[in-house]
Queue: 2 jobs
Job 1
Amino acid sequence: MLKKHAVAIVLLVSLTQALSGPLNFESLPLDTLFPGPWESNIKAPFNKSYIEPVKVFNTEGSVSKSSVLLAGSDDRRSLTLGPGDLVSLEFAENIAGRVCFEVEDYKNEPFIALAYSESPAFVGREPDATTDRIERDLPLHFSIKHNGTNCLGQQYNRGGFKYLTIYMPDDVPTGRAFWHTGMSAPKRGLRHTLNSWAGQAQKLLGFSSTANNRPGVSITALWVNCTAFPSNPNGRAYTGYFDSSSSLLNRIWYAGAWTLQLSTIDPKEGSALIDLNRRWDENQSPTGSWYSNFTISNGTAVTTDGGKRDRMVWPGDMSIAVPGIAVSTYDMLAVRNALDTLFDHQYGDGSLPYAGPPMGTGEFSDTYHIHTLLGVYNYVLYSGDVEWLKRHWADYTTALEISMAKVDEFGLLHVSSTADWLRPGMTGHNVEASALLYDALSKSPMLADLVGDFSNRESWTSMQRILEHGIERLWCEDSGLFADNKGRRGCNGSEEVLPQDGNSWALLSHIINDDRNLKISRNLRERWGKYGAPATEFPNVISPFAGSFELLAHCSAGNYDAAVELMELQWGYMLDGPAFTNSTCAEGYRVDGDVQYPAYWSAARNSHAHGWSTGPTTVLMQEILGIKLTSPLGKTWSIKPQLTKWLSYAQGGFATRLGKFEVGISLVRQSSTGLKIEVIRISTPKDTTGRIEWKGHIMENVHGGHEVQFWRYKDDLDGSVWNVGNEAVLKDLIADDEWIKPPIEEREPGVVNWEALERHLGRSTYRRQQ
Ligand SMILES: *[C@@H]1O[C@H](CO)[C@@H](O)[C@H](O)[C@H]1NC(C)=O
Ligand SMILES: *[C@@H]1O[C@H](CO)[C@@H](O)[C@H](O)[C@H]1NC(C)=O
Ligand SMILES: *[C@@H]1O[C@H](CO)[C@@H](O)[C@H](O)[C@H]1NC(C)=O
Ligand SMILES: *[C@@H]1O[C@H](CO)[C@@H](O)[C@H](O)[C@H]1NC(C)=O
Ligand SMILES: *[C@@H]1O[C@H](CO)[C@@H](O)[C@H](O)[C@H]1NC(C)=O
Ligand SMILES: *[C@@H]1O[C@H](CO)[C@@H](O)[C@H](O)[C@H]1NC(C)=O
Ligand SMILES: *[C@@H]1O[C@H](CO)[C@@H](O)[C@H](O)[C@H]1NC(C)=O
């Protein structure tokens, strides 16, 4: 408690820190722009080329739970592995990179096997999965050939793992049980010998074993050399921050930022989908093997869908991930490279690809097509890169016209592709696609102004009017939500679906602007279970992707309380749930809280660091602190903070080339009188102007360059009357220690519909077999 008081008081004096030089995303700052106690929540390691494990998770054979390989260990012994020995190591967070170890001694041509897992649920001799061909990837087989530093080859860069199991098999592998990293297979005849070694004791110190011909290796250090987030050698040099009275929310914000860093990779280390890569690189790698050496974009860094997989450019990331990147590390170069890849693979008719290489050979999705356009807006807004926009403007408008041409006499976008975020039923006159287009049309005028093209304005506006009428056909009065389409999945249709994605987009695109907004928000909230908000369009799924849109939707309806409640419920579960990484945001999971993402039959395939799941990193900044840029770099801005009933203080901000945007809100008390005061401080860069809205007070044309402070206080007993003004109240302030966080509603876990799940997958799933 005391610590929180201190922070709240600090808040009252700490804003308005000048930027020492212009922030340039082509050469990111090497130090954090907002130093402070909140940095203890940063998940990025201090030295990303040397990440050591922090815990021994499990051992087998003669390996003791020794601390030799752990960070900070002063244990001078070495760890010796012989046949049958295994050690599973745990890192402080989900990480990425190549494993290296220091060999002190070895004998008899030893090899070790490596198995990686993001989730604690798949730690063992078999790794988790990157492809969907087999349930688990093959363990990697590494032969020791020299003393000293041994590192895996450049292509064996695992993009996401928190657990690493290394072991020496007590039997020579047969067939394809292992995957060899260049070393020839063990010689014939060794199998028998190895079998006879099994079970023999192996001492930790040196090779004191009786069997002189047993293989063995002594290791004195093990580390991971991480190449994710190549844009900055210091992964902790954040350009934004968030802090609040909820330690859970703070962890969520930083887990999102770190997830985005793990999903940003060296473009030459892409695509874990080796079966797709084969179309280009003709690799002969066996089913279940993995490597990351496929070039997925030009440039030096690129933002992708996920750390472990697919390690490809996916437009689904453009709406959620990009603003999150902008306010945490400002790695806009990685965003630009991803957008360039999508435009480089634009098809002849102007359609944009469903994904970048090794895809981009004909695949198309109406929704992802529009996500790319929204990505252009986000990129230009935060980077101010108008020259880039000019180069792509013709491509952009052609692509926009493609979507507009699909709006038919019903006033809705009639999709031509079933592809979306792997959810089923993307057919017909779809609500999500129509609302996405509406949003793209709202955002295009700012872009058109920047390039000086005024030719399309009228057709865009009239298209918006058409969509506003069209979407009414999908309104289900009885349910108070929109239906997925006007066919079978329509209101009272044989398979009525009231989708999370479409209803969220209806709100966040502002296509409807009446009292149904709050109704939809409340109806979405009614559906939540113990582990989060269900994506009813995709049975059995909790999708932090669609859920991130739902967060924005509640805010758009003015229901900020629901947004923060859902973050703590769903993203809190993704941190503290038993099968997650407690450091990154997962691609999806099951309504009953199981780690399986029902898009895949193998639960091990889930990606635990997926950029599209990082909604809170954006939403806390844009909607709770309420800082929105309304023109590139924030030359103009709008600030509308919302503390919500869940918080007693919140502060944070970020920077662009123009300078720092920062907001702090806190509930305090005047110690002498007990008067309750809510104080807000806002600081924006000079030479900018904006609009501030707070509790019904609106200030237009506020000039940046100095700090603005507001407060209001309540002096009646029941707390219903708030007064503003009277500067005298701003004396002897202490944190409002009478503030109590309201209790969270109890909810039942979702129930799995196994029949629907297995019908969708076309097979029984791994978890049910268990
Ligand atoms: C990490 O890998 C890079 C090359 O990718 C190399 O230059 C560097 O020395 C390595 N660092 C460590 C500590 O292994
Ligand atoms: C990271 O650790 C390696 C190995 O100890 C060291 O060579 C390198 O200088 C360290 N880098 C930083 C940034 O501390
Ligand atoms: C490895 O180092 C050990 C002692 O540290 C030494 O006895 C052994 O001969 C070395 N092996 C090779 C192949 O150099
Ligand atoms: C990538 O690695 C795989 C597996 O080792 C190999 O087959 C392929 O040729 C490599 N590709 C490149 C571009 O290095
Ligand atoms: C790199 O840029 C060139 C030229 O624009 C383009 O043809 C190529 O497809 C790009 N590579 C990738 C992997 O996107
Ligand atoms: C759906 O059915 C209910 C009654 O079951 C009816 O009141 C409602 O008007 C119907 N809605 C539509 C859109 O047909
Ligand atoms: C997750 O990590 C936080 C520290 O960031 C820790 O306080 C919490 O106990 C951890 N949760 C679990 C379930 O291990």
Note: The pocket of 2-acetamido-2-deoxy-beta-D-glucopyranose (ligand 3) is lined by residues 104-105, 147 (CB under 6 Å).
Job 2
Amino acid sequence: MIEEKIIQIKKEISNNKLIIVSKYRTNEEIMLAYNIGHRDFGENRVQELIKKYNELPKDIRWHMIGHLQKNKVKHIIPFIYLIHSVDSTKLLSVINEKSIEHNKKTNCLIQVKIAKEETKFGFTQEMAYNLLNSKYTEYYPNVNICGLMGMATATNQNYQIENEFDNLYKIYSKYPKLNTLCMGMSQDYKIAIEKKSNMIRIGTYIFA
Ligand SMILES: *Cc1c(COP(=O)(O)O)cnc(C)c1O
């Protein structure tokens, strides 16, 4: 049962923040989690995110976790709680511009490429250091960069996943202004927690 899985996983992850990944799930399934008090949900497609935002209770905190196209930023700025998937400085500029238009400051995580797979979006580790060492609060005054997000390679080689999470923590630990290290999904959240993640994104484990 969805509710039991959520209660179990929240116990297991203690102080970590749980984002329930609700992509492809129905409003009814989301409401099962909502009705036991859960409020943080993640979606990876703008269209589906907007539809669910419109149909579901307004106190849900919506997290954008998938690749975000620049021309779609304006649609989510008015209500998004946290964008996990900022994968370029160009996207950061657009988020800043649209946030200024809406007179708000948008919470963002920098997505860093830690996996070996070529297909994943994100800043290289070098680009992440360049950004974090820059005067980014001056360049993007209406963006609040709260932390980093990363996805490990989908593999059953635990040492590789551990290594990749270590690499992300290494960057995170150098910047005390950051407070969110979002790593860990259904397959690897236990490793992520050992590696000092403080926010995890879980879909399949809860709903399947
Ligand atoms: C789908 C997705 C998840 C959740 O993955 P599960 O394996 O279903 O837990 C987490 N993060 C991102 C970016 C996703 O797209």
Note: The mean pLDDT is 97.
